[in-house]
Amino acid sequence: MMRSSQPLTGTNGRRCKEDEKLINATLRPGKRGYIIDTRSLNVAQQARAKGGGFEQEAHYPQWRRIHKCIERFNILQESLIKLVEACNDQSHNMDRWLSKLEASNWLTHIKEILTAACLAAQCIDREGASVLVHGTEGTDSTLQVTSLAQIILDPRCRTIRGFESLVVREWLQAGHPFQQRCAQSAYSNSKQKWEAPVFLLFLDCVWQILRQFPCSFEFNEQFLIMLFEHAYASQFGTFLGNNEHERSKLKLPQKTMSLWSWVNRSEELSKFQNPLFEANSLVIWPSVAPQSLQLWEGVFLRWNRPSRFLDEAHEEMINIIKYN
């Protein structure tokens, strides 16, 4: 599985024979490859006017391109603002709360991301195919899909150390702009231009899988909540800056403490270990059915919503999704 930004084909359909040769070199003998574009076909076509675009099938004959739309960061930010507003609604009117929750489309975004990740995992597991995942810049939705696909396929990514390595490899080293995306509190109503809950959505998707496979993960929910909190905080230098170059230029490794060095101490590590964990070497396939996805109470409702109200609301939400 590979990840990249979009090819710069432009309106003239430019070719890059070196790219074609490189991509084809990853194919196994007798196997085909899949290019999963995390944009809709319409958005990908519009990108050509700005110099971007997508792979032409004539130039990549052994590859099949599939578009699995995951909304861009500005849409996700609007969704989070609406979700936070719904969770802060103190009217205790279930119909009103459910209406706001549905309008936020938060669970819909989770479904889209998990569906794309499952598709990538299926291509690899069931067909032995090579997979290339990209969006526009390759630093947002692309990372969500590749990270979740690895969690589905690789049991090592479900361990604490393995998950830490996954975050470093697929998010920090791949250049997810944490400084821009997590500039303010996730619960803030006023957002800056480049803010977006891309990493939070990824953690939410992991939590959804953890709920469905409670014995397959070495870490617990608190581990995910801790990562969410520190992605927005500045207590450690791990999530500061927008990429490795900025972190190196700011000398963060020398000036700050790593989050991992704190988490991996025995006295802290015990807080994040799942007592139900049993090593599972199998591939795990999460469900994206309405009844399988829930609002992450530990993040969004930990201060202001009773669990009984949430249980009733979840049942109503399932019915809304089923019949609308």
UniProtKB/TrEMBL annotation:
GO terms for cellular component: cytoplasm. One of its GO terms (molecular function) is protein phosphatase binding. Pfam families: Myotub-related (PF06602). Signal peptide: none annotated. Residues 1-300 form the Myotubularin phosphatase domain. GO terms for biological process: negative regulation of autophagy; phosphatidylinositol dephosphorylation. It comes from the Eukaryota. Belongs to the protein-tyrosine phosphatase family. Non-receptor class myotubularin subfamily. This is Myotubularin-related protein 9. It comes from Dryobates pubescens.
